[in-house]
Specification:
Layout lengths: L1 E10 L5 H11 L3 E7 L2 E7 L2 H14 L5 E11 L6 E3 L19 H8 L42 H8 L20 E5 L9 H10 L4 E4 L4 E6 L3 H10 L8 E4 L12 H8 L5 E5 L16 E5 L4 H6 L6 E6 L20 E5 L11 E4 L4 E5 L9 E12 L9 E10 L9 H17 L6 E5 L5 H8 L4 E4 L1 H12 L6 E11 L5 E9 L4 E7 L2 E4 L2 H5 L1 H11 L12 H13 L3 E4 L2 H11 L11 H9 L14 E2 L3 E3 L1 H12 L4 H27 L3 E5 L6 H13 L3 E3 L11 H12 L1
Parallel strand pairs: 2-5, 7-13, 9-11, 10-14, 16-18, 18-19, 20-27, 22-26, 27-28
Antiparallel strand pairs: 1-3, 1-4, 2-3, 6-13, 7-8, 8-12, 9-12, 10-11, 14-15, 16-17, 20-21, 21-22, 23-24, 25-26
Helix pairs in contact: 11-20, 13-14, 13-15, 15-16, 17-18, 18-19
The structure holds zinc ion (ZN) (2 copies).
Length: about 750
């Protein structure tokens, strides 16, 4: 007999795909079987050509929303006849399949969670084929219960019945569980003593009393406290050595509109299975403590996405700080022991977190939502590249650390791994890399890294016995965005960034390139300014301001907040040219102007002073202001006239908001003029925007608007971050084009 074999590759496991196939086969009266293999899903059916065509069309059109079909092959194969349609045991074979990201609690499970008549009423681990943990609980593929952290919880008869019923929502839902058989919550104090009370009720009570509770979630721990309680926030900021960096808050959905401005699109993003943090304008009427996001008109907010969150939040406790459970810039914790001393209590449970990931962050703009951190809910979904690669490791940079592994045209970006070169980050990096290699069956034959010699990732790449390609940081930024849009032709590539090692050993970050993957030529850059003391100056923008003004021959006496000893130190450093770097970084220009205005002489988190400068413009549109002066030369954009104008405005006591707005206007203007010049001599009208500065909403939106007005086609990062979180992608693409 002739059978039809259908092989499907993509995200087809752990999202109710086999039950869907089963139901479809019953509906069409097809006989045969379906199974999960490590290369996807395989179906063998016996039936007439017409019915099988209908079957295939319906697979394409009606598949579960969370499924992604990359590839479907149909072939004939000989075989015995079947008497029914069944779901067979999983096969382990050579190909690799994809893994579903973690999915937020679905509406059906939420209803059951809140329904006193339901078997899983108030059960904090409720899930089904449409929702629940995936990436975070998986040890190996194919995705089956014994290959997850649910393997130690044998199903009770109730759960087993649902698990085995092809028509049930929990059919083959691997993490299925109930209070009779599944994981359990427990509340413990700082000395690991179990408190023998209802864990949810007790946690709510403790948070209301102003305690800090570590809460074990999906991708790791959150550190949680009441977001309206300034006293506990003061304590938390001290404990975390985090004086200013904003905290994200989780909000009880019915009260969200009391806190932030949100539109329908915003709601859709928050309620999606990804359930990311969304950065939204805070309302004047908000009751959130000002310590949540000091001097910041925006709030990072998200909705409950795990059952335990739904149980904690209510109208009587609607606003919770839910910040990643880590020590400063370190990876997120998966065990309470890592957070000793940071939390008073822990709400924890006995389902291990196998794979850690932080919450993802989205920034809405006038044009499209852009991603700031691509982690839980997105990973490990692959990105399609505009080329067929050899198996390649993109080692990444250092801040917003991520690596990338590629196979053919698919690229797997790691979760956000940390923000430092520490031992913990390195361990997490190596551990996650080993897993990615195993899961996706990728053994790199090529490695790409940054030019910066001191990065942990550079040293790691050099230690491998593989062909190595070093990729300039900002070329990687531009290439990452080109890859997002599958562009394979010459572009004008703008990389506006903090810092990245240049090919001339200067620190770059205000670059405009022209070219394609083979060669990106640096066409324009901001003129070099002196950056004293490298990284230390970056934490003290006032020193950068002093150095810039001094180099430009501008009187510095108006500078506030510069200590006399600092002045002497920097002065000497500049005179002797000791440990002074040349930099073309636009990020540093933001820092410098911000410090000239007296905003933050010292910063406590990356981009703090640039953000302050953006926020200072509040409501004063740059395009309605006059630009400051600048000169565009042969290859340099001279910003000294701009600095001189800013200094003059400050001395003339011009409103600071106007100065900030004129500064933004000037950045947009010199960019548009430079890009126009390039088009004149090259005829290229595709412009790519990249680099950390593109997280400045004002700069991004105004650039898009003005460039489009000038008839440029503009590409900006949306599914990958503009910041260093996408460097690894650019590295892989360029390395493959250049070997
Ligand atoms: Zn569900
Ligand atoms: Zn059960």
């Amino acid at each position: 007999m002739r059978m039809t074999e259908i092989k499907i590759n993509g995200i087809v496991q752990g999202i109710g795909f086999r039950p869907f196939i089963y139901r479809l086969a019953l509906e069409l009266d097809l006989k045969g079987y379906v199974l999960n293999s490590s290369s996807g899903v395989e179906i063998v059916v016996d039936g007439s050509r017409d019915v099988i065509n209908t079957f295939i069309n319906k697979i394409r059109s009606d598949h579960p929303a969370a499924a992604i079909i990359n590839d479907m092959s149909v072939s004939a194969k000989p075989g015995e006849g079947f008497s029914s349609f069944i779901i067979k045991e999983s096969l382990s074979n050579k190909g690799a399949t994809l893994m579903s990201p973690d999915l937020a609690t679905c509406p059906d499970c939420f209803q059951e969670l809140k329904n006193p008549g339901d078997h899983r009423y108030n059960y904090p681990f409720i899930n089904c084929t449409n929702c629940g943990p995936r990436f975070s609980i998986i040890e190996s593929l194919p995705y089956d219960r014994p290959a997850t952290s649910m393997k130690t919880f044998p199903m009770c008869s109730y759960c087993k019945r649902e698990y085995k019923d092809p028509l049930n929502r929990r059919f083959h839902a691997q993490p299925v569980a109930c209070s009779d058989c599944g994981p359990e919550l427990v509340i413990i104090d700082g000395n690991d003593e179990i408190i023998d009370e209802d864990p949810i009720r007790k946690t709510i009570e403790l948070i209301k009393e102003g305690k800090i509770v570590g809460i074990k979630g999906i991708g790791g721990f959150h550190i949680c406290c009441d977001a309206t309680n300034t006293e506990v926030l003061q304590r938390l900021r001290k404990l975390k050595y985090r004086p200013h960096k904003p905290f994200a808050i989780m909000i009880y959905p019915p009260l969200l509109q009391n806190i932030v401005e949100i539109d329908k699109d915003g709601w859709d993003v928050l309620r999606s299975p990804v359930a990311p943090i969304l950065i939204l304008p805070q309302k004047k009427t908000s009751v959130i403590s000002p310590l949540v996001a000091p001097d910041n008109p925006y709030l990072g907010i998200f909705l409950p996405y795990a059952p335990v969150h739904h149980l904690l939040l209510s109208s009587s406790l609607p606003y919770l700080i839910m910040t990643s459970g880590n020590r400063r810039d370190e990876p997120i914790a998966s065990e309470e022991s890592e957070l000793k001393g940071l939390c008073d209590f822990f709400l924890t449970h006995n389902r291990p977190i196998i794979n850690r990931s932080d919450d993802s962050i989205i920034l809405p703009t006038k044009y499209k939502n852009v991603i700031i951190r691509r982690s839980r809910g997105y990973i490990p979904k692959p990105i399609t590249m505009p080329l067929v690669s050899v198996p390649t490791l993109g080692a990444g940079a250092e801040l917003k650390l991520t690596f990338a592994l590629s196979k053919k045209d698919s690229l797997f970006l790691s979760p956000y791994l940390g923000n430092s070169g520490s031992r913990e980050t390195r361990e997490f990096y190596l551990d996650t890399l080993a897993k990615y290699k195993r899961w996706f069956k990728i053994e790199p034959e090529l490695v790409a890294c940054d030019l910066q010699p001191d990065f942990m990732t550079t040293r790691y790449a050099e230690s491998l016995d593989l062909p190595l390609v070093k990729i300039q940081h900002h070329e990687a930024h531009v290439a990452a965005v080109m890859a997002e849009y599958q562009i394979d032709e010459p572009v004008i590539g703008i990389a506006y960034d903090g810092t990245g090692w240049g090919t001339d050993n200067a620190i770059w970050g205000g670059e405009i390139f022209v070219g394609d993957y083979h060669k990106l030529e640096r066409y324009y850059h901001l003129n070099y300014m002196p950056l004293p003391g490298g990284d230390r100056a970056i934490k003290h923008p006032i020193r950068i301001a002093f150095a810039y003004l001094t180099a430009a021959g501008i009187d510095t006496t108006f500078l506030k907040n510069l200590q006399e000893d600092e002045r002497i130190l920097i002065q000497k450093q500049l005179e002797r040219n000791f440990n002074v770097f040349n930099t073309s970084s636009l990020g540093r220009l933001f820092d410098s102007v911000s410090a000239m205005l007296g905003l933050y002489p010292e910063i406590t988190f990356e981009a703090q002073s640039a953000m302050a400068l953006e926020f200072l413009t509040s409501g004063i549109l740059p395009r309605e202001q006059k630009p400051y002066s600048f000169n565009i030369g042969e290859s340099e954009i001279d910003i000294i006239p701009l600095i001189r104008d800013v200094a003059a405005d400050i001395k003339n006591k011009v409103d600071q908001r106007i100065i900030a707005s004129r500064f933004h206007r000037t950045v947009v203007d010199f960019t548009v003029e430079a890009v126009n010049n390039i088009r004149k001599s090259t005829n290229i009208s595709k412009v790519v925007l990249s680099g950390g500065v593109m997280q400045n909403r004002l700069i991004l939106e105004e650039l898009i608007r003005e460039l489009r007005k000038n008839n440029f086609t503009v590409f900006f990062p949306t599914i990958i971050p503009a910041n260093d979180g996408s460097i690894a992608l650019g590295q892989v693409v360029l390395a493959n084009k250049r070997i």
